[in-house]
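Box 3.1 A note on notation
Throughout this textbook, protein chains are presented in two layers. The first layer is the amino acid sequence; the second is a token string describing backbone geometry. Keep the layers aligned when reading.
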Amino acid sequence: VMGISPDQMRGLSVPQLVERIHPDDRALVQRVVADSLTSRRGRVEYRFRTNSGEYRSIADHYAVEVDAAGRPTHRSGLLRDVSTERRAAQQLRTTLESIGDGFFSLDQHWHFTYVNGAAERMLGLRREELLDQTFWDAFPGAGDPSVAPEYRRAMAGVMVDFEFFHPPWNRWFHIRGYPRVGVGMSVYFRDITAQKVAEDDLRRSEARYRTLFESIEDGFC
């Protein structure tokens, strides 16, 4: 899992082990280790340098055992290589940042877990602002009786596809919600205001021409 042999692992001192942890992850690991001396358990993910020089993403879940004086004696737990999963997640994030559609994901309690750049631009909000909120707190207008049931259906496990007019912004959105049962939901959306305006202009134009043609036909009767 760690990319080094068990014998080599046992032979490494604590400073040598820390030196193999990615510099950006060391503070987190040290904080979790310190907390685990009190909680008796730890859960942390970090990048660990193998003998080949590459970094692997390691999920480390462990328990700490102590002696009668409360001093830690040893730890036991599970180490898992999650490098493939993290690479896939990074590729997904890269894709989501490159698309023109706005995208956000919600957990099962309606908290934002991810917001892409297109969503930031269309909504005029930074992702950091949204990640601190629930969907309903961030967008009270989404509680409209004509819209809220669609989002709740998606959260309940039904894919939804609908259009929504947001009066405060005077804008139309096309929204697609995809459930992730037991986890939350993903939402893709596009600003279709220009399309709606064009369609409305076309309808008015057709109505004017129809009235004109009807009046011309009446003149020939």
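The chain has a mean pLDDT of 88. DSSP finds nine helices and eight strands in the chain.
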